[in-house]
Amino acid sequence: MTQQIEDYALIGDLRTAALVGVDGSVDWLCLPRFDSPAVFATLLGDTRNGRWILAPQSGGRCTRRRYRGDSLILDTEWITPDGAVRVTDFMSPTSAGPQVVRIVEGLAGEVPMHMCMAPRMDYGKVVPSLHSVGGHFVGTAGPDSVWLRSDVALTPTNDTLTGDFVVSAGQQISFTFGHLRSSQLEPPTVDAADNLAATERYWLQWMSKCTYSGPWADAVKRSLIILKALTFAPTGGIVAAATTSLPEQIGGSRNWDYRFCWLRDAAFTVRAFLATGYVEEASAWRDWLLRTVAGDPTGTQIMYAIDGTRHLPELTLDWLPGHAASRPVRIGNGAATQRQNDVWGEVLDALHATRAAEDPPRPDEADLERGLVTQLEQNWAEPDNGIWEIRGPQRHFVHSKLMAWVGVDRAVCVLENDHARESLNELRELREAIRTEICNRGVSQSRRAFTQSYGSARLDASVLLMPRYGFLPWADPRMVATVDAIQRNLTRDGLVLRYAVGAEGTNVDGIQGEEGAFLACSFWLADALHGIGRTDEAAELFDRLLSLRNDVGLLSEEYDPITGRHLGNTPQALSHAGLVTTALHLAKPTATTVQHHPPTWQEAAS
Fold first, then answer.
1. Which three-class secondary structure state does DSSP give residue 18?
2. Where are the alpha helices (DSSP H) in 444-559?
3. Could you report how far apart the first and last alpha carbons of the chain are, in Å?
4. Is 547 exposed, middle or buried (0-12, 13-18, 19+ CB in 10 A)?
5. How does pLDDT run across 60-89, given as a tens digit for each residue?
6. Over the stretch 183-199, which tens digit does the pLDDT of each residue have?
């Protein structure tokens, strides 16, 4: 494994996505959708597990690469002793089915090029049968086929397709790769130049809706494009990341499948979309959710497949050695069956925000909201697995109680705005009871901070979100003290850990091993520093987080400040949503301008 997680760029078509390395190799692609089996899986194995390389014969890392304007069209350039060449990679959201288009363009001189495609079905396990059909190649294995159209002659050798050619200045050579069901007879007719033009128009039109024009416009727009790329257009579902099993610790076992729709993660993305003018994306996700839970709103799960499938069994793929020998490689996710009491509040908050954006509620939205409130009423006082999906003993997590308060508060707001009185007083009383319990049981007097769970002195970055949801003002001394405690005790080189883990024994989450700094939590700390009036520190931390993006603006789930490497699945929606919302938050007034004389710790506690 020669490429690091941060060496990859993303291309996608709102149905699936591919990762393209700095060496010109497509090392990850699932077809026909995000959660389908990969046909290129070198990312989690080696070249025997499938890839598609297109680069100068001299090989090596590219000279530079960048996205073309505000789009997901990737331009990768090499300057070689023979000349200069550009490879343009993209997937068109307007094509009839998923297609990867690669256009080689000579920029100077004459550059010898090499193309080698080795598709492997079922996550790199099955070698398809390759054959030529009317000027293109088709590879078939079971129910699926892949096809390739090429402007140059290719040679099938040892279950791969290879082609060596020379590209001169001004010359363009294209390749188009797509998916078919094996029962389909003929790949579609495609024109690479037309697809490129249509893709450019799509992203130009989509980005024209963006309402953000602040000081970090380039970073915010890039993150919004990534978030859009992680949406599944046919349904409106939003995946947490484009990959599975990229390790949170190199060589460790913290490897999970993120190609599904977590309601919590999607809610963060929805709020980022709404704050920047993208109401349509929020509405599409809301409609996906309504369809997904139709008939059983009180049985809402914490996550689903992108088409609303509930059953997501967790399996291991033992034939893959894992990225950088990090095993096991997992597909599916056992967290789907967990109790995570914070999720209902996240969803109610997102629905409330979507309605506030002047998008009218759907007729069945009230049934969903009632079902979510029912779940909160029945479960909020019970221990759960929490926001971090621990696989150890359930606890009374403070963040879960916070989000229960948020859900009840949003339900109260809806009833008040609708001038409804049914159960309103009961919900108000429940809201106050939850607030009182959190303030009494969720604070450690020795730490002088909100903690991870009742009766524990452990810190948890998720409590930084309390003021964002309106539970407490930023200037509340308990919040200020909590920010200080987390900054002192839950950071690594200034970046925030979700919670403390150690290399020895089993951690609070029930899993052995360590992990990197969690990027979303680091954005939350920047929000908190700004909120309590430490604006210079907040801006400094935000600028540092922006510097951790890779060369094309992608963030994964975590970061190792010692090695400087990205960790976890990539690109991560929660990280990019955090970037967007923090950029917006840093433009707001701080707590010191809102409340000049905050109460003391003792006054607040009483």
1. strand
2. 477-489, 519-531, 535-547
3. 57
4. exposed
5. 999 999 999 999 999 999 999 999 999 999
6. 876 788 889 999 999 99
C-alpha separations of 113 from 72, 85, 159 in Å: 24, 9, 20
The sign of the torsion formed by the CA atoms of 475, 479, 485, 486 equals: negative
pTM over 0.85: yes
Cβ 137 vs Cβ 160: under 8 Å? no
8 A C-beta contact, residue 537 and residue 207: no
321-332 residue pLDDT tens: 999 999 999 999
Give the 3-state secondary structure of residue 167: strand
Residues 15-32: tens digit of each pLDDT: 999 999 999 999 999 999
Residue 124: Cβ within 10 Å count: 28
| Phi, psi for 313 (deg, rounded to 5) | -60, 140
Cα dihedral 429/435/436/442 (nearest 10):
150
Encoding tokens for residue 197? 């033009």
CA-to-CA separations, 422 to 80, 348, 429, in angstroms, rounded:
73, 18, 13
Cα–Cα distance measured from residue 200 to residue 240, given in angstroms and rounded to the nearest whole number? 25
Q: Which regions of 407-477 does DSSP assign to beta strands (E)?
A: 443-444, 449-450
Token readout for 30 is 């699932």
